[in-house]
């Protein structure tokens, strides 16, 4: 029952918005009663928090699998995280839109848990950048914290405009983002390949 309440709430919150959706509409959609709703959730806000936390926990689980992989270089891990976030646009798009759009309706006690999980996701990303710098895969002049915020900004906002069933595939968008992250948009000078020697497939700068 709890999973059904969450699933229908995701549909309604994404379509109508959190404030415009009532508890009555949620329970009617699955043929339940308000009593059943309040057995699992103290309030509609607690349900929203549950949706956001579930979404973040899934991202953190996937991210942990990537960063803990001893077979991947930092560059490969970076690409894998970008690809994971883009793939989640297809698999968890509605939850993502609710997370970014409706989180403002949560009180501080609920936000504290969510902020801690967001911070953990960001810190893992930042540590990956720092490790890449230390290994010589990324430029030593990079400001790891600011680069991390930039990476998050590039990928997070894709939820609002990227269509997985459009003209660009998830793999292609990942390649576009990673190329932009690693090389920017400036054309290489004569004699330069424009390819980072530390990318997967090249030996330069890699220690694994």
UniProtKB/TrEMBL annotation:
Residues in the DNA-binding region are 22-41
Gene3D superfamilies xref list:
Homeodomain-like (1.10.10.60), Tetracycline Repressor, domain 2 (1.10.357.10)
Keyword check for DNA-binding, yes or no: yes
Per the record, the domain of life is Bacteria
Query: Does the record bear Transcription regulation in its keywords?
Result: yes
For this chain, one GO molecular function annotation is: transcription cis-regulatory region binding
User: What Pfam families does the record tag this protein with?
Assistant: TetR_C_24, TetR_N
The HTH tetR-type domain is annotated at 1-59
Which UniProt keyword terms apply here?
A: DNA-binding, Repressor, Transcription, Transcription regulation
**Protein name listed in UniProt:** Transcriptional regulator (TetR/AcrR family)
């Amino acid at each position: 029952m709890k999973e059904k309440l969450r699933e229908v709430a995701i549909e309604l919150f994404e379509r109508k918005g959190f404030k415009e959706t009532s508890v009555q509409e949620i329970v009617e959609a699955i043929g339940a009663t308000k009593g059943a709703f309040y057995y699992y959730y103290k309030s509609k806000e607690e349900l929203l928090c549950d949706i956001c936390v579930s979404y973040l926990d899934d991202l953190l689980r996937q991210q942990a699998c990537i960063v803990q992989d001893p077979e991947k270089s930092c560059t490969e891990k970076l690409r894998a995280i970008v690809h994971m976030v883009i793939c989640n646009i297809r698999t968890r798009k509605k939850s993502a839109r609710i997370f970014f759009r409706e989180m403002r309706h949560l009180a501080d006690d609920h936000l504290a848990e969510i902020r801690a999980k967001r911070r953990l996701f960001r810190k893992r990303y930042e540590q990956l950048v720092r490790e890449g710098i230390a290994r010589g895969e990324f430029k030593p002049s990079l400001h790891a914290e600011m680069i991390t915020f930039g990476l998050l900004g590039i990928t997070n906002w894709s939820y609002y405009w990227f269509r997985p069933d459009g003209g660009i595939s998830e793999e292609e968008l990942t390649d576009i983002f990673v190329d932009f992250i690693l090389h920017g948009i400036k054309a290489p000078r004569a004699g330069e390949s424009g390819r980072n020697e530390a990318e997967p497939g090249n030996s330069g700068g890699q220690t694994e």
